[in-house]
Amino acid sequence: MTVRPTLLIVWHSRTGASQAMAEAAAAAARDECAVRLVAAEQAGPEDMLAASGYLFVCPENLASMSGAMKEFFDRCYYPLLERIEGRPYAAMVAAGSDGAGAVRQIERIATGWRLKRIADSLIVCTHAQTLEAIAAPKHLDTAAVAPCSELGAMFGAGLAMGIF
Questions:
Q1: What parts of the chain have a pLDDT lower than 70?
Q2: Which helix (H) or strand (E) holds 136?
Q3: Residue 120 contacts by C-beta under 8 Å, 6 or more apart in sequence?
Q4: Residue 13 half-sphere exposure, CB side, CA atoms within 13 Å?
Q5: Per residue in 111-126, pLDDT tens?
Q6: Who's near 138: CB < 8 A, 6+ residues apart?
Q7: Cβ distance 93 to 124 under 8 Å?
Q8: Which residues pair with 39 in a beta bridge?
Q9: Which pLDDT does position 1 carry in this prediction?
Q10: Packing angle between helix 67-80 and helix 100-113, nearest 10 degrees?
Q11: Longest C-alpha distance within the chain, in Å?
């Protein structure tokens, strides 16, 4: 019996959008490979070392990745330097309008680790622009999470087939 590759999904969410995105990707990937869905606050270098590939999911806050996701990268960056090179990754960001700042930060960190991006980063825009809309719990519809599921399925299948 062969060991199934593992996709580690590290996520952070304040209002539910990023969590819904991570869960949709995980559900689709589970048909193809083993999946570990770990909150950024709990994820550490040992989780990264045990995984075959990574999906990073967070909201964009003030044109940056969320603080909890940044803290995850801060804790893990140096302990993993030169230990995970070449592994595949992808990123998904929930944003009120743009998302590019958070994506840029994640991609820059992944470049430092010398990870291999396997898909364009996915931004799900919630269009939340008022204080009330920004702070409110997010309930993404089927159309919003469909690309997350597609990315999860593709990533899982690629890991299972040894493409990545």
A1: 1
A2: none
A3: none
A4: 24
A5: 999 999 999 999 999 9
A6: 15, 16, 17, 20, 94, 126, 128
A7: yes
A8: 11
A9: 55
A10: 10
A11: 53
